[in-house]
Design goal:
2 copies of one chain form a homodimer. By secondary structure, chain A is an alpha/beta fold. The first copy, chain A, contains 12 helices and 8 strands. In chain A, strands 3-2-1-4-5-6-7-8 form an 8-stranded mixed beta sheet, sandwiched between helices. In chain A, helix 4 links the parallel strand 4 and strand 5. In chain A, helix 4 runs parallel beside helix 5 and helix 7 packs across helix 11.
């Protein structure tokens, strides 16, 4: 047992899956859920993702040894302000958000003395959201990034890492700002790209030809990418603004470069481009 | 039986699947294959995709009632120049290429008198290529576009449509240039977008953070898109240059628009964008 009581703030796909897996692996003794909708929390209990729940934050966190923030990134600051005064000494607070950077320092600063914050990000997800999509194997074989700062304590980091390892994840430690650059490239940029494509196809001048009727597998893969929780992605786009705009700039440069190859009808150049894509394909983890 | 002898030029994924399906549905009596590699053609016979094959073009097409061009688009003109003198009267020539536009008129002009050309494009495909990936159900439920011109004969169009319907496709007739605009948007642009993303991730300044190691499902869907035959895609990019550059311009405008929403931290605007993506998703055929 790594933590006695784990309180999950936001029992959706990620929070619910963590509860399920941590209970199954006996990494925690009790899982408490906090949320705003009683129906969803009730469902979470019946799915065995949590043992019990509270609709009031102070009660939910009062006895927690670990608090996990699993709501959209944009809610973290307010939540931490609200829950901090109710934590007992020695509590560890972590999160599962897709953005780190300066947010980590800001949350750290909101913690009372003798409470430690460790930023975390399990790189797992599905197109579906909500606790009904939760599964005890979601983190099996996935990468989880912890983002320590100068203030982080080694023993606390080790405890949080042990929880993720218990549910099957491979844990790395990365600087919070590097985390945002990396995720900006391999996750946030792809989602941006997919949403931009969908938006292009919605343009009235394009839509009048009803092109989507004649689409096939290629487009379907894109629509799948553009299918996750809108609130979550809004917050990611806003909170990782700097790295995203940097990644988009790179992407725009690449578009101009390939456009030139097409304009110049550079067949060998295009073949080389397709070959380089293979390298990335072979590097991408299969899970 | 719609055609007595069908000769397939290029027995790969699409050509092989057409042979398999047309034989199974008895839409043709005999299927002859033409290609350059004896090994692949031999394999195609053993898979029952063709009945026999020739490595010389004149022999392959001499007795054909229907000739189907199923090689990359860039080879069509040379092939038609080479095979035209060897066709018998009344032969129908069609293709399965992803680009139409002015190429249709050019191929039409290469045909001898009493030979009819009809442009065709089954919107089907898999990431895999080659006859080993061929399947008799590839065209089941897929859209096939025929691209008639002012010179096209109604009875010839009907015959070609009947062949595609026999193998399970839904047939539409679309102007060759509209075809290129439509496919430019829903197929060629998505592939461009995916290759541009892969290329961005290959950039040394990005690659030094080894970001792909931390990628998940989103990126995997992209790598799948960027997995089809390089030669085929080179030819599509080059032959559909005009419509592609037009589609890319639209896409670049959209990128600028979304970038502005991110820069301005326009949360409600981003949520609206994600909502509009849903409309496209619901319109895209499930097969």
């Amino acid at each position: 047992m790594i933590f006695k009581q784990m309180t999950i703030i936001g029992v959706g796909l990620i929070g619910g899956s963590l509860g399920l897996a941590a209970k199954k692996k006996k990494a925690v003794k009790t899982v408490v859920g906090y949320g705003r909708r009683r129906g969803a929390l009730h469902k979470a209990v019946s799915l065995n993702a949590i043992d019990r729940y509270f609709l009031t934050l102070p009660k939910a966190v009062a006895d927690a040894d670990l608090v996990v923030l699993a709501t959209p990134v944009g809610t973290f600051k307010k939540l931490c302000q609200a829950l901090a005064p109710h934590l007992k000494e020695g509590t560890v607070v972590t999160d599962v958000g897709s953005v780190k950077g300066q947010l980590v320092g800001e949350l750290e600063a909101l913690m009372p003395e003798k409470v430690n914050f460790v930023g975390g990000h399990p790189i797992a997800g599905r197109e579906k959201s909500g606790v009904l999509a939760a599964t005890g194997t979601l983190f099996q074989g996935c990468q989880t990034i912890l983002t320590p700062t100068a203030q982080s304590k080694q023993d606390v980091l080790r405890q949080v890492a042990a929880l993720w390892e218990a549910v099957g994840a491979k844990v790395s430690e990365i600087d919070p700002f590097d985390h945002d650059r990396i995720l900006g490239m391999v996750s946030h940029l792809p989602h941006f790209v997919a949403y931009a494509l969908m938006e292009t196809l919605s343009h009235p001048q394009v839509a009048k030809l009803d092109p989507v009727r004649y689409s096939a597998g290629g487009l379907r893969d894109f629509t799948r990418i553009a299918e996750s929780s809108p609130e979550m992605w809004r917050d990611i786009f806003l909170y990782n603004k700097t790295s995203m705009l940097e990644a988009i700039d790179f992407y725009q440069e690449t578009i101009e470069k390939i456009k030139k190859e097409i304009s110049a009808e550079n067949g060998p150049g295009l073949l080389e481009l397709f070959e380089r894509a293979k390298v990335i394909r072979e590097k991408a983890p299969s899970k």
